[in-house]
Amino acid sequence: MNDFNIKSQTHILVVDDYLDNLTLLTMILNNLGYQVRQANSGKTALKAIEQMLPDLILLDIQMPGVDGYSCCQQLKTNPKTQDIPIIFLSASNNAADKLKGFEVGGEDYITKPFLLEEVVARVEKQLILKWQKNQLKQELKYRKKIEKKLLESQQILTQILNTCPDGIAVLKFIPSRPHKPAYFYCTFINSVMENLLKPNQKRLINPKILKNSLDIFDSSLFDYFSEVVKTGHPFEQDLYYENSEIKAWYSVKAIPHGQGILIIVRDITDRKQCELILHQTNDFLYQQATTDNLTQISNRRAFDVYLKQEWKRAKREELSIALIMIDIDYFKLYNDHYGHEAGDRCLYTVAQTIRQAVKRPSDFVARYGGEEFAVILPNTERIGAETVANSIQKAIHDLQLPHAQSPISSYITLSIGISIQIPTSEDFIILIQTADHALYEAKHQGRDRIQSWSELLE
Ligand SMILES: [Mg+2]
């Protein structure tokens, strides 16, 4: 909008009981582009103002009836009109009169006879001041609105932060300086975090969070947090904390925030306890599912899983793997003679004896079925396998478990078949078949002996 347009929208009210002044001022201001209205008394001026508010008033002081001072007073006490700038026009150059003009609220004072240029300059100055005042008012109004919204947002945020289940804190990082170590400065902490830290950790709430305050929780925490500031990568870890009053698990998260970090801490003790119970239950169930109830050694299912796993490993590493199959000789006769309960006790004793005879942690003993047992020996060659088989056989011999019905001995004896393979295919059945075949041969040749599959091939 250009200057003329602004002026054409600016309304000036000229008030003077002297017609010549009224005419002259109207003409001058009209020529400059302003909208001008006239009033020849205080009374008509107030009426004109009531009908339409002007942007500025040129007001004569000495008028019959309502004079300029009282007209001004009335306008300045009315909220609707109090902001309209008033420039007094007066023939009096008396300082007291001028002072009164300002006291009743006038913005400026021009002495008659006036210089037209002076009137124009003072009018324009007042209009600019009014415009600037308006701008300031608008800005103030806008700022108040923003402040109100900000306050509302802050209240909502505070409510959320104080009612959410997580402890939240904002820490500013102060890097190390000569003779002064780096530290964190706490700029915000919510009530949940304060409660989490009670009663013994108040040091952490203190503004300066030094390394040893964080060390209470975890000796690496200060370094972890510093790394978050340096790298911008978030940190997340579950931490266990214990003192004389608290035993608790916390989930700790730290994310970069400005010159420091935002920390979110949650008490996860209940969840951790559930996990622990679940873990123990799983362990128990796994144990149940993979253990043979009668002999308390691994069952056939566990055997299959372990053999598959070790067979794969042996193939990958091109190593030999041995399988020992064991059968209790004439066990049916034992059962028939001593009864099933004694038979079960015998199976248990033999199973536990075999297990004790096998030494390496990677060696695996299982009940294969009935009175048959199997031993998996990873990374084992013929001599090693035969040594283990001999130890097993000797251990059973040493037990001297009576077997009155055995045609070959007075005691329990074992037939043992061994197979050693370096896997060439995924299928481990070849190992079971050859060990089984060796066992069959051991029985066939009179029982109470060890037969190796490779021996049969020689
Ligand atoms: Mg007059």
From TrEMBL:
Keywords: Phosphoprotein. It comes from the Bacteria. The keyword Disulfide bond does not apply. CDD domains: GGDEF, REC_PA4781-like. The modification 4-aspartylphosphate is found at D60. Residues 319-455 form the GGDEF domain. GO terms for molecular function: diguanylate cyclase activity. Residues 11-127 form the Response regulatory domain. GO terms for biological process: cell adhesion involved in single-species biofilm formation; negative regulation of bacterial-type flagellum-dependent cell motility; phosphorelay signal transduction system. GO terms for cellular component: plasma membrane. The lineage of its organism: Bacteria, Bacillati, Cyanobacteriota, Cyanophyceae, Oscillatoriophycideae. PROSITE patterns: GGDEF, RESPONSE_REGULATORY. This is Diguanylate cyclase domain protein. InterPro entries: CheY-like_superfamily, Diguanylate_Cyclase, GGDEF_dom, Nucleotide_cyclase, PAS-like_dom_sf, Rev_trsase/Diguanyl_cyclase, Sig_transdc_resp-reg_receiver.
